Amino acid sequence: QVQLVESGGGLVQAGGSLLLSCAASGRSFSSYAMGWFRQAPGKEREFVAAITSSGGSTINADSVKGRFTISRDNAKNTMYLQMNSLKPEDTAGYYCAAVQTRNPNAAYYTRSTYSYWGQGTQVTVSS
């Protein structure tokens, strides 16, 4: 089992940057594929980015390609989301998620795949 805690959200102007972190407690962090999702008011939670358990491969939603970068440091049990060139439409609660996997090369974009979720951190981008 793993517990996830997000941090780094806040208020930023359009064009600015934020770095989100997801700290994991529990055992065997390096055996978990990880992902970031976001949810705006009145909308469904949507995929943002995912990373394999090894950190060797990532996938990104089209809406954030070229602007957001997902990464992880297995030695620190932490995953990151570097967000650049932020837009007002990026405003949402951001959630990290984890699923244990035996495949070090698998990354998942489907919300239902994930077993564990953090409580979220709010990102607000002003125009």
Provide a brief overview of the structure.
By secondary structure, the chain is an all-beta fold. 0% of the residues lie in helices and 51% in strands.
Layout of helices and strands, plus pairs?
Blueprint: E1 2-7, E2 10-13, E3 18-26, E4 32-39, E5 46-51, E6 58-60, E7 68-73, E8 78-83, E9 92-100, E10 116-117, E11 121-126
Parallel strand pairs: 2-11
Antiparallel strand pairs: 1-3, 3-8, 4-5, 4-9, 5-6, 7-8, 9-10, 9-11
Summed over residues and divided by their number, the pLDDT gives a mean of: 97
Shape: globular
Helix content: under 10%
Q: Helical segment tally?
A: 0
Low-confidence spans: none
Query: Main β-sheet: number of strands, strand sense, barrel status?
Result: 7 strands, mixed
Q: Kindly state the number of beta strands.
A: 11
Category by helix and strand content: mainly beta
Helix and strand sequence: EEEEEEEEEEE
**Rg calculated over all Cα atoms:** 14 Å
Our measurement of the CA-to-CA distance between the termini, rounded to an integer number of angstroms, reads: 40 Å
